Queue: 4 jobs
Job 1
Amino acid sequence: MTGSEARKIRTMIVDDEDLARQVLREFVSKHSEIEVVAECANGFEAVKSAAELKPDLVFLDIQMPKLDGFEVLELIGPGPAVIFVTAYDTFAIRAFEVHAVDYLLKPIGAPRFEAALERAKERLSGKLPAAPLPAMELAAAARPPQQYLDRIPVRDGASVFIIPVAKLDYAEAQDDYVALASQGKKHLKQQTISSLETALDPSRFLRIHRSYIVNLERVTKIEPYGKDSFVAVLSTGAQLPVSRAGHARLRAFLDR
Amino acid sequence: MHPLLTQIRRLLFYLLGWIPLAGMLTYLLAVPGGLTWWQAAAVAFPLCLLYAFVCLAAWYPCLATPLERSSVPRFLVTHVMGAVVASALWVFAARMLARMLTGFEGFHEIVPQISKNFPLLFGTGVLLYLLAVGFHYVLLAVEASRQAEARMMQAGLLARDAELRALKAQVNPHFLFNSLNSISALTASDPAKAREMCILLGDFLRRTLGLGEKPSIPLAEEMSLIHAFLAVEKIRYGDRLRMEESIDPEALDAELPPLLLQPLVENAIVHGVANLVEGGWIRLGAHRRDGLLDIAIENEFDPEAPRRRRNGVGLENVRQRLAARYPGVASFAASAEADRFRVVITIPVQRDEGRVPPQAVLQEKTS
C-alpha cells in the first residue's frame, strides 16, 4: 500500500433507495482520493458500519427505516464529517445545528456536490472547525421546539437499541454518561443528564436528584429516608434517592 | 343587549311605529273615555313613549321562552304575567302623570278623569304588551334565520376550502424531487430506463392536472391514476413495494371525487413501505353493497419507525373532503393495529351527478 492510498478519504453512503446511492456513487467515483468503504440502506446498518469502519465522511439520508439521519449522527458520534442528502429542505437548519458539513437537496447537481465535497475536505484537514461539542449533545439540542423525545436510540458497540420513552423507568448520571434503566436492563449512553432532562417531556419525567430523572408513571411511593431526605420507590422495585429540591418538585407536581 | 338598542336607526323606526298607537290611545281616552282631545293627547303620547321602552323588556322573557321548545302553560303564564305587571306599572305611571298635570290650565279635573279610565288603560296596556311579545318573536325568528344563513355560508366556504386545499396538496413535491433524483441516477446507468421513468412521471402528472378539475370520476379512472403513480414509485423502491388489489368489477364504474385514493396510497408508501427495510405490502380493496361503495386501503408499517412529519395531514384532508362532499352520509375510519394501518371509506354510489340515494344514509363514524 503506497502513502497516497493511505490518505484516501474513507466514505460511507447511507440511503434507503438504491438509485439515490447510485447517483452519489457515480459522483464520488470521479474522485480517486475517495474510497467508498460501505453503502448502507438503513439506520441500523449505518451505525454498525460506522462503528466498525470509522469512516471520514458520511453521505447521510434523513428519512430512512429504523433510524433517521439525525439519530444515526447522534449514535456515530462526532468523528466523521457528515453531509446530509435529502429531498426535504425543512431539516436544513437542524442539520447545521448538529454541525453537518453540508446539506444537499435531491435531485443533486454535480457542481453542488463538488462544493460540498470541498467543504468536507476542509473540515477533515482541520481548516473548518469540527463540532465543538459532542455530536449527541448537539443533536439533542437541535430537536424541533415543542417536540419531546418519543424514543431514545442507544448504541452498544455495533448494535443499536431503541428505548421508547414510555419504557424508560429512570435515568442515572454516571460521569459523562447516563445509564438508562428500561425493562430490567441498563443502557449506557454518552450524554449529560441535563441535556436528557430538557429532551424529555416534563409532564412525564422529573429530575428528582442531581443524578436521577424518573418516569413519573413508575413512582409508587415516596418514603422518608433518614433526616431531611427521601427515597422514591418505583413499581419495578428500584429505590432512587430524592434530594430536597427534587422532593419539592415532586410535591409541586403531585399537588397540581 | 337588546338588538334595537344597539343601533339608533332601528330604535327610531321602532319609536315611529308607536306614534299610531299613541294616536289610537288618544282616541280611546277622548271618545269613550270622556277627556278633551287636548287632555287625551297630553296623557297618551308621554305614556306611549314610556311604554315603548317598557315593552322592550319583553325581549328577555321571549328569549327565555323559545316558541319551539316551551310548553303551552309555561308560555301563557310567562307572557300573561309579564303583561299584567307591565300594564299595572303603566297604569301607575298614568296616575303619576295625571297628578303632575293637575297644575296646568284645563287639567284641574284630570286625576279623577284618568282614575275613571283605569280599566281601559289597563286593558290597552295588556294588549300592547302582548303585541310587543309577538313583535319580539318575529325579531327572534329573523335573527335566527340570519344566523343560520351565515352558518350555511360558512360551512359552504369551509367545504370549498377543504376541497381546494386537498387538491393543492395532491402532488407532493417531495415525490417529484425524489423521482427526479432517481431519473438522474438512471441517466448514467440505464438511459432507457431513465427515459421510461420520465414518460411515466409525465403521464402521472398530466392525469392529476386533468382530473383535479372534475367533480367526480369512475373508480376505474382513479385506479389507472394510481397505477401510473405506482409505476414511478416502483422504479424507486423496486421489490420493496408490493401492491395487491382486489376490486369488484361492479365497483369500477362507481363515481368518486378525483384524487381521493391516490394520496392514501402515497401515505401508505411514505409511512409504511419506505420505513421498512424489506419493504411491505399495500392492499387496496373496493366493493359495492346496496348503493354504497366500500374502499379499504391497508398497509404494513413499522410501529417503532422514526416519527415522520406531516403524519395525519393527508388523512385529515380526505376526511374533510368526504364530509364536505357527502355530509352525514360518507364514513371514514383510520386505525392502526400492531404492524398494519387501515383506512376504510364508505361513500354512496352516485347515479346522477350529486344525487345521493336515500337508502344510503349512514352514521358518520370515526376512530
Note: Strands of chain B lie at 217-218, 241-247, 255-256, 280-289, 292-300, 331-337, 340-348.
Job 2
Amino acid sequence: MRAHAICFTLGRFIQAATLNTVIALGLAVFGDKEFSTNLVYSQCIGLSIWGLLDGGHRLLMPDRAAQKHRLIWIVPLGATLGYVFGTLVANTLLNTHNSFTFWASEPRQALGFLVLSLVAGGGSTYYYMSREQLAMAREDRAHADAQTEAAQRHAAESQLKLLQTQLEPHMLFNTLANLRVLIGLDPTRAQDMLDHLVAYLRATLDASRTTRHSLQAEFDRLHDYLELMAVRMGPRLRYTLDLPPELAAQPVPPLLLQALVENSIQHGLEPQVEGGAITISACQADGLLTLEVADTGVGSQIDLNQPALRQGSFGLAQVRERLRTSYGDQGTINFIAGYAGGTRASITFPSEI
Amino acid sequence: MNHTRPPTALIAEDEPLLAAALQAELAKLWPELRILACVGDGDSAVAQSLARKPDVLFFDIRMPGQSGIDAAAALADAWETQGADAAPFPALVFVTAYDQYAINAFEAQAIDYLLKPVQPDRLKKTVSKLQLALIQRAQAATSLIAPAWSGDTQLDATLAQLRHLLGAVSGPPSDASRANPVVPLQVIQASVGATIHMVPVEEVLCFEAADKYLRVLTAEREYLIRTPLKELQAQLDAQVFWQIHRGTVVRAQAIASVSRDEAGKTTLQLRGLKEKFGVSRLYSHLFKAM
C-alpha cells in the first residue's frame, strides 16, 4: 500500500514538473527572459506550490468529499506561499538580483506571475480532485452494478423457473396432443382450444413484464387454463369462477392464482379417478381482498402451511415470494386441508382501490 | 398358440380424446388388432389386464390412481406364469407427453414408448415392432415342445427395465442413487395413545405399508406411524434396509430365509418375527444363492 501511495505521489510530481516546464516554455516564447531562467523559476515556484497543496490536501482535508470547501482558502494560500518560497529558492539558485524588486519595477508582470501561479495551482487541484471523484464514482458504480447484476440474475433465474413451471411439458404436450386430435374431429372446438392456449401462453410470457393486472384479467386467464384442462380431463373436471362484478377492476399481481389452481388439479383432482370440482372466488372485507381456490380432490397429506414444502414446492414458494414483494407482511396465504375432502387455499392482501 | 386368434390390446389413458385418437390410429395401422378395453386409471388398467390378458398394453404414464409405471410393476408382479391360465406377459408400450424417465436411454428395449402428440410415422414403427415380437413369440411357443414356462423372457426383460424406471434396485452396493441418504434416520417417533415412543431404527426389523399407516415392526412389538413409506425410505440406509415389495422394506441382516412355492410366489422369513412377507417379482432378483 505504501509503495502504491509513493508511486501515485511520484506520478503527480512528474505531472507538476511537466506543467512547470510547459509554463516556462510559454514564458520563454512570449516573454523576454531566456528559457533556462524561466525554467528554474517555473520549477521552483511550481514545485513549491505543488508541495504545499499536495501536503495541504493531505493534512487539512482527511475527508476529501466532506471538506471540499476548505479548498477555498487552501488553494490561494498554498499558491501564494509557494510563489513566495519558490521565488526565494530560485533567487538563491541563480544567484541573481532580488527579484522582489521586480514588484516595484514591473508590478503588472509580477502580479501576472502570481496570478499565473494561482491559476496553475487552482487548475491542477481542480483537475486532480475531479479525477479522484470520478474514480470514486466509478468504483461506486461498479459496486452498484455488481449488486444490480446479481439481483437481475436472481430475478431472471426465478423468472425462468416460473416459466418452466407454467410451461410444464406435460401440460403443454398433452394440450397439443388433444389439439391435434380435435383438429381432425371438430375444427371449431379445435380453434376455440387454440384461442385459449394462445391467451394462456401470452399471459404466461407477459406476466413478467407487468406488476399488476385487473382481477377480471386474472379470472379470464384462469378460465383459459381451466378450459384447456377441461378438454383434456373431460367430465373429470368441473369448475366455477365466481367474481363479483364490483371487484373486477381490482389490481392483482398477474397469474398469482395460477399456481394454486395448477396445484389443485395436479395434486388434488388428477390423482383422483373420479376427478372433482374447483371453485375460484373473490371477496372483499375491511379493505382486504381474499381470493380463494377450493377443490374436492384427494387433499394433501402434508401441511401446506409449512414453508418448507416437499412436493410441488416451487409454485407455492413463488406465490409466497410474490405476495411478500408486493404486500410485505400484509399478504398472507392459508391452506385448509380436508375441506370437502380436498384443499382450500386462500390468499389475502390489501385491496388497492 | 393358435394362429387364428387376432392380436389383442388394452389402452390405459385418462384423457378421453387421446384414448379415442390412439384407438383410431391403431385401427388404421393395424386393422387386425382388437382393442379389448380402454381404461382411464392405473388400478383399472391392472385389473383389466389381469382379467383379459391382452397381447399388447398401451399405458399412459401419468394416470389417476396409479401411474402407468406403478401399474406395470403391479401387473408384472401379479401376472400368472404357471398353471392353466398362464399366458406370456404382454408387450408394454408407454405413452407419455414428456419423457422425464428417459425411457429411450435403455439398452434393453423391452418396453417401447411413444411421445404425445403421437406421430403416425412413429406409431407405425411401434406397430411393426410389436407385430414382429408377437410373431417371434408364437414361433417360440410352437417350436419348443410344451415348454414349462420356466422363464418368460418378455416378463424378465420388462421387469429389468421397470426396476430401472422405479429406481428400485436397492440393496446391492452397485446402486449409488439411493445408497447414501444425507442423514440416516436414527429414531422413529411413534405415538401410542397420548405417549410418544422413541424407537431406535437399529431395533426395527421391517416397515410395512398398511392403508394410511405404516407398520413399524421390532422383535418386541409393533408401532403405527403416519409417514408414507416412500418418504421414510429416503431417510433410511439402502444398504441396511432392502425393499422387497412396493409396500415392504426389511432389515437385510434380519432376513432368515427366502423361499419359493410351487406357484412361483416368493416369501421371506425374518429372524424374530413369525409373520411371512411376500417378495414381489421386481425385487426377487435380490435373492440368489451365492
Note: The CA atoms of residues 154 and 180 of chain B lie 32 Å apart.
Job 3
Amino acid sequence: MCPQLCYRCTSTLKAASIFLLLVNQTHGQDASPMTRAGEITVERHRKQRELAAETNSKWEDRFIYVRESRLIERFTAGIAGFRVKLGGLATNGGFAAGPEYLRTDFGDGLMTFRASAQASLRKFQKYDLEIGMPRIAGRWLSWNLHAAHHNYPQLQSYGPGQGSVKTGRSDFRLEDTAIDTTLAFHPLRRMTVAGQLGYLQNNVGPGTSKRFISADEQFAEATTPGISHQADFVRYGSFVQYDYRDRPGGARSGGMYYAQWGRYVDQTRGAFSHHRVDIEAQQFIPLINARRVIALRARTSLTDADSGNRVPFYLQPVVGGSDSVRGYRAYRFYGDQSLLMTAEYRYEIFSGLDMAMFADAGKVTDRRRDINLRDLESSVGFGFRFNVRNNVFLRVDTAFSHEGFQVWFKFNNVFASGPVKTSSSQGEF
Amino acid sequence: MPKLLLPAMLISWAANSPVAAETPTFRPDDPLWVMPSPLPVSNAGLRKIGDVYDLFYNELGKPGDSQPLRGQPILARGVNTLGDVPDGEWYVNRHYRHRLSTTELAQGPVGAPPSRAEKWIVVAAKNEGVTPGFVIADATGRRFVLKFDPVSYPELATAADVISSRFFHAIGYHVPANHIVYFKREDLVLGSDVRFSDPKGRKRSMTRQDLQDVLDRVHKAPDGQYRAVASLYLTGQPIGPRRWHGTRRDDPNDTVPHEHRRDLRGMRVFASWLGHDDSRSINSLDMVVDEGVPHVRHYLIDFGSTLGSASYGPNSPRSGHVPLFSWKPAAREFLTFGLYVPSWSLAKYPSYTSVGRFEHARFDPERWVPEYRNPAFENMLPDDAFWAAKQVGAFTDEDIRAIVRTGQLSDAQAEKWIVQCLIHRRDKIVRAYAPKVLPLDNFRVEEGRLQFDLVGSGILESPRYAVRWFRGRAGEQPRSVNDGVGTELPLRYDDLGADELLIAHFYSGDQRTVRVYLRLQPGSAQVIGAERTWATSVNSEQRSHIAGSITNR
C-alpha cells in the first residue's frame, strides 16, 4: 500500500470510482473511464441526467412567428383581397390610409382588379378603380383601365412662373375625375410603346387652409388660367419607354428613358386645349463595383396651347418638392414649360444603407425658347437611402436652397417617376 | 519525407531549451479516431431559428464564450490527442486522411439523382430561402428539393450549390446529395392537394398556375428546359438548425460548446475558401437519424450563396470583406463622404453571369468575415486554422477541377475562372495559416524513424526546425535523452521504463514547437499524441497547446 496518495494512486482511485459509477448507470454500455471513449461517454451520461427541452427566447419566437405566419405579406396582401393602403396621395396631404381591394388572380392571372378609397388627416381623398390585363398574347401586349376621383382641399399655389415668391403661398381645392385606358405593346423585354385615351373632369375651388389665403382670392384668371373657369378634357396620347435599369427600385447601373406626347381637348369652353410633351432620361453610372453610383436625371415638360387657348394652372408642369428641386417646397413653381436636372452621388455606408449627396436644378418658363440652363433654381443636399436587397423602401433627404431647407421622408425612390399612364392631372398631383 | 534542416544555431538552441510542460496522461485508445457510440436521443424536438433575430442576437448579444483578451486562450475541444477531429456526427475524416479519387470527389455524398423513369410529382413548394423552388418525388419515392437560378443569372446559384456541397463533403462535413438536373415543364405533375403558401402568405392548395408562376420566376433555356439543383431529402427527423454557440440541451451527445468545436472553428477557413459568407445557423440542419440508436446528425445545407453567388444574383463586393454592418467601416464611409475607397471595392470580377463576384486577388483569408458575428469563427486559434488549412491544402489542382466540373457550367471560361480562384485562394490559405504553427503533421514511425509530412509542401518554403528527444511519464517533467537528435528513435522499448513515453520535441527557432508522444511496444512504436505551441501576436508569449486537446471537455 502506498504510504502517501501519490499521483498514480489518486488517478487510479478516481478512475475506479468513476468506473463503478458507470457500471451502475450505463448497464453494460462501453463506458470504461480508463479509455478516451469512456471519458466521453461519462460526460454524455452526465449530460443525459440534465436534459431539457430546447427552447427559444420569447423574442426569437416572435420573430419566427412573424416570418412563418407571413404577417407582413398577409398584411400587404390583405384578406380575401381586402387590405389597407397607406400613402399615395398628394404631397402635404398628411398621413393617408384606406381600404383597397386587389385581385390578381382573375382568369388564371390574366386579369387584375383593384379598387381603393383613401383619406388623409388633412381631408384629402382619393377613390380609384383599375382593371388590367398584364399579359395579352404572351408578353407582347398589356391593357389597363383606370378611373380615379381626387378631392384635394389644400393644394399649394405660389402664383405663376419663376418670379413667384415663397410668401405668396395660397391654397386651392382640386377635384377631378378621370378615366383613362392604356394599351401597351412590348416589342422588347425592356421596351414599351403605348397609346392612351381618356376623359378628365376638373373642378377648382377655394382652399380650406386657415393658415393661407385661398388661391382664387390671391390670383386672377389672367395670371392663373383655370382659377375661375374649369374645364373637362378628352385626352389622348402615346409614349415610348426603354428601361434597362438593373433594379428599378434602387438602380446602380443602366438607364431609363421615355418620351410622352399628350393632347388635351377642352370639352367645356374650348379655352384650354393644348399639347404636352414630357421627355425624361435617367442614367446610373456605377463606380468601383457599384459601391458608388452617380445617378443623373434630366426631365423637361413642354406644353403648347392651341391658338387662343391657355394651359390651366392645375395642368401646368411644376418644379419643387421631394422628387424635384428638393430645396423648395412642393409645387413651388408653376409654368407652361419646365426643366429639371438632378445629379446624385450615392455611396454605400453598409449593406442596407446608402448615403447620397445631391444637387438639383430646375426652372419653369412661359416660353419654350426659355428652356435653357440660365436662371435655374437650384438646391443641394444629402440623404439616406434605406434598402432591402438594393430596393429602396425609405429615403430621408435634406436639401438647402436660398429659400431655406426642406427635410423629406419618402417611401419611394427619388427617380421613381415614369410615363404618366393613368392619373388625373398628368401625375403632378 | 521533407528534409530535416539542422543549422548549427537551431541545434544549439534546441539543446539548451527546457521542456517545461508535464507529460500528459494518455489513454489506451489514444488517439481516438472514431467517436464512441452515441447515447439514444429520445425527446429532441423541433427548434427553429429566426434569421433576423439570429443576426441581431449575434451582433448585439455576443453569445457564447469568447477568447480572453489576455492569458491562456480557450483551446478547441472535441479533438483527439493528435489535434484531429474524430469521425462522428459532426464530421468525418475524408480527403485529408483518406485520400479520395477524383471520381469519389465528384460523386459527393451517397444519393443518386432523381429517377427519370416517370414524371416527377410536385409534393410541396419551397417557401424558405431567397430562391423559389419546390419538392418533388421521383419514381422511387425519394424526395428532392428543386432549387433554381435567378432569371438573369443562369447557372449561378445551382453551380455554386453543387460545387460547394461537394467540397464540404470531401472535407468531412455531412451534406445532402445535390445534383444538377434539367427538365421541362411537362416532366412535372402536380400532386393531389399540395399545400402551398402563396406570395401573399395565404395557405391553400397549390394550382397549376402556382407551379407555372414559380417556373416563370426562374431561368428557362431557349430549348424550354429548366436547370435546377435536386437536393436529396435528408433521412430522419429534422429538429432544426444548430447554433454557433452552446449545445443542444435535448441531445446528450452534444457536450462540447459549439464555439469551441474545432470542426466549427476551422470551418471559418473552409467558408472563406469557398466564399461562404452566408454560413449562418439557418444554413444547417440537425436530423435525428435512427441507425440502431436514434441520435442527432449535424448537416450543412444550402450552398447557393457561395462562390460569388448570393442565390438571387451576384454577391455584394463587400462579401467576405466586411460584415453586413460594422461600426468602423460604416463610420469611415460616412465621415469621408464616400471618398475613402476600401481596397476590396477595387476587386476586378470577370463578367461571367454564372459566377458572380468571386475572385482571388483581393482575398485575404485572415481578414475574411462572414455576414455577421460567428462565435465559433471568432474563437479560431492558430491550431484550429492549421487543422483546416492542411485540409484545404490537400486538394490538388486536379481535385479542384474535378469538383468544379460537377457544377456543369456551360461556359468553359467561367469554370476555368472558378478553378483558378480556388487554386489561388487555397494557396493563400496555406501560406497564411500553415506557418502559424510548425507545419508538420501526420507523424508516424517507419523503419525506426519518426516520419511526418510537411503541410503546404510545394506552396510553402520548407521550415527550419530541429528535434530533440525526451522521455517521461504522465504528470512528470520529461527528461532529456542524451544524443537524441534527428528523427531516428533514440531508444527502444526495452530502454524505457513502465508507462514511460518517448517524446520528440521539434523546435523552429521561434515559439513554434511540436511535441510528439510515442508509445513504444515490442517491435513497434505508435504516435499517440501531438501538441503544438505558437507565438501570439500580442505579446510574443508562448502559448502551449496542452493536452487539453485530449479531453472532450
Note: The longest strand of chain B covers residues 524-535.
Job 4
Amino acid sequence: MKDLYLIYKNLTRKKLRLFLTSFAIFIAFLIFGAVTALQGALNSGVEMSADNRLVVVHKVNFTQSLPYSYVNKVKSIDGVDKVTHSNWFGGYFQEPANQVVTFAVDPDTYFDVFEELVLPPEQMASWQQNRASILVGERLARANDWAVGDRIPLSSNIFTNKDGTITWDFEIAGIFNGETEQVDTGYAVFHYKYFMETQTWGGDYVGWMILTTSDPSINEQVGKAIDASFANSQAETDTSTEKAFNKAFIEQVGNIGLIIFGVVFMAFFTILVVVGNTMILAIRERTSEIAMLKTLGFTSARIFRMVLAESCLLSFIGGLLGLGAAYLLLQGVSQQLARFLPNLVLDSSIVLQGLFYMLVLGLITGIVPAVRALRLNIITAFAKG
Amino acid sequence: MTSMLSQSWVVIVMNLRSLPRRIWMSLAMVLASAVVVAILLAFLAMARGFEATLEGAGSDDIAFMLRQGSAAELNSSIVKEQVDLLETAPGVMSDGDGPLVSPELYVIVDGIKKTTQTEANIPLRGIHPQGIKLRNSFQLVQGRMFTEGTDELIVGEGILREFDGFELGEEVRFGKYSWKVVGVFSTGGNVFESELWADARVIQSLYNRGSSYQSVRMKLSSPEQLAQVQAFVESEPRLNQDTQSEAEYFSQQGQSLSYMALFGRIISSIMALGALAGALNTMYTSVSDRATEIATLRAIGFSHMSAFIGTMVEAMTLATIGGIVGSIAAFLLFDGINASTLGGSFTQVVFKFELTPDLFKQGAYLALIIGFFSGVFPAWRAARVPVMTAFQNAR
C-alpha cells in the first residue's frame, strides 16, 4: 500500500511532465487504434470470405463477361455444391458521384451461396415474386435512409433501359443483414432476368459465377476442373478461391496502402521512442532519492518493482485513453464512411495488440532505470549527488 | 539595445554549447520533429505524384465525350453512327487524313505486378492513327508503331516499369488471344503511359464490340469551341454524350487520391501534437537543467529577455535540425519511388512520388511551428525564474 502511494507521488511530482508524457502516448495510441482499424476495414473482404467458396471469372479480366450457359456446365462438375452468378450494374442514386453498389443476381440461388446474409422469409418471398423489386443491404439502407416499401430510382453508368432512359425504378422488397457485424451489407441485389430483359443490349451473359464446393479440401481440384472444361473456348475462365480473389482485388489498390501503413507505424514507434527516452530520464534524475530509499531499508527488489510499476502505469494511462479516444472517433465517423468502408470497427484483436505495445513500452522504459536502481551502490550515489 | 543583443547572443551560444550535456533529450526532440515532417512529406509527395500523372494527360483544346452519366471510359459506350455525327460538330480541326476525331475503346486485361506477383487491371486501349496525333507528347522510345489490322501492340513505359512480361518482342496472352509487343512509348510521364495501345478495329473484332466505341476525343481549334460542341450534342437527339474538356476529365480523376493529401495532413497534425508534447518535455528539462546558469546570469545583470531568447533559439534550432533531417529522409526514402494504384477507370495508374520544392516549404513551416510552440512556454518560464528559488532548487 505504501508502495502504491510512493508510486503515485513519484508520478505526480511534476504534473506538467506527467501530462505531456501521457499526452504523447495518448496521441501515439490514438493513431495506432484508428489506423489499424482502417487497415482492417480495407482487408475485411479477405477475412470474411468463406473457405469453400470459389469465384469464376473471365480469364482476360473479371470485367469481361461469361456466357450464361456456363452456369449449368459448372453445376454438373464434380465437387461443385451450389452455383450462383452476378452481374455488375454500375448503379448510382440521383448523382453519378453517389454510387450504389448493385448486382443483378439469380434470386433462387444467390442467398444459398452467401449463407452469411440473412433476411426475414416473408421479405425474401416477396422479392422472389416481384421481378421489379430489389433487396438492399442493411448498411446501404441506413446510409441512404431507405425502408422496405420505398420506391427508389437507380441509374446505371453502363447500361441503358429499353424505355430510353438510364434509370430503373425499384421497389425495396426487403433489407438483408449479416450474421455478424463484419459481413458487408453495403450493396443491393435485383433480378438477373429482369435486368437482361429491360436493358437495350440484352443477351445471355453473366459477369462472374460464385460457387461452393462440397469440401474446402477439394477447392483446387474443382477450380482446375472448371478451367479445363472451358479451355480453348471463346471465353476461357479463371477460377480462384474467394479469399484469393478478394486479396488480389485489394492488392490492386497497391503498394500505396503498404507505404501509408508502413509510414504510420514507423511514426507510432518513433513517438514511443521519444516518450520512452523522457520516461527513462525522468527516473534517472532521482538517483539520489533511490539511494535514500535503500538507506532507509527498502530492498532492491522492492525498488525494482516500484520503478517498473511506475513506468507501466504511465504507459497504460496514456495508452488506454488513446485507444478509448480512437474507439469514440471510429464510432463517430463509421456512420459517414459506411458507404466506402463498411467494417470500420476497433475489434478485440486491435485492443489486444494495443495492450501488448503498452506493456512493452512500460517494461522497456522501466527496465533501464529499474536495473540501475537495483544495482545502485548507495555510497557512490550519494557521492555523485 | 545593443547590450540586449549581445546578452542574448551570449546566452544563445551558451545554451547551444551545453546541448551535448542534454544529448538524449535533444536528440529526442530532433527525432520527433523529423518524423512529423517526414510523414507529412510522404503523403503530400504521393498525392502530388498522382495528380501530376493524371493532370498532365489532359489538354484544354480536346473535347472528351462519354455516354451520359458514365464518368469513366470503362463504363461508356458510343456507337459508330454517333461517332460519324460527332465528326460534323462545329470547331473540329482536320488534317490531311480527315477530321482530328478519335473514337477509342477501353478494354481491361490482366497483368502481373512486379511487386506482388499478383494480377492487376491494365487498360488495353483501341486507337486509330488520328488518336495518336491527339497526344502531343507521344514518343516511341523503343521499337516501332503497331501495324493496323494486326495483333501487334505498343506498351507505355509505366507498364514496363511495374508489370512483368511486356518487354519489346514479348508475346503477351490475354485469354484466348496473344499479342506481340512491337514498341514502347512515352507520353511524358502522364497516365497514358500506364496503358497498352493496339488497333481499335482489331480490338472490336476480338472482344465482340461490333463497331462500337467507348469514348471520343476531338481536337478543337481553340478551347472556347467547347461550348459550341456541347450545344451541338445537346440539340442532336441521336446523341447522348456528356462533353467536357479532356483536361477537366483528368483533373476529376486525379482528385480520387486527394483524400490522401487530406488524410496525410490530418495524421501529421495529430502526430505534430504528440511530437509537440515530447518537444515541450525536452525544453522544460533544458530550462530546469540550466536553472543555476540562468539564475547566475540574472544575478549578474542579464535581462529576462536574454533568457527568453536563449531558450527560444535552442528550441527553434532543434526543431529546424529535425525538419532538415526529416526532409532529407523523406527525399531519400520517397522521392521518385514507383507506385501504382486503382484509378477512376478501375485500372492501374502507375505514378511516381514527387517531392517538389513547395512541399519542402510546407515541411519547413511545420518544423518551425513545432519549434515555436515547444520553445515559447519553457522560454517564458526561464525568463520568469526568480533568482533565489532557482539557486535553492539547483541544490
Note: The longest strand of chain A covers residues 167-178.
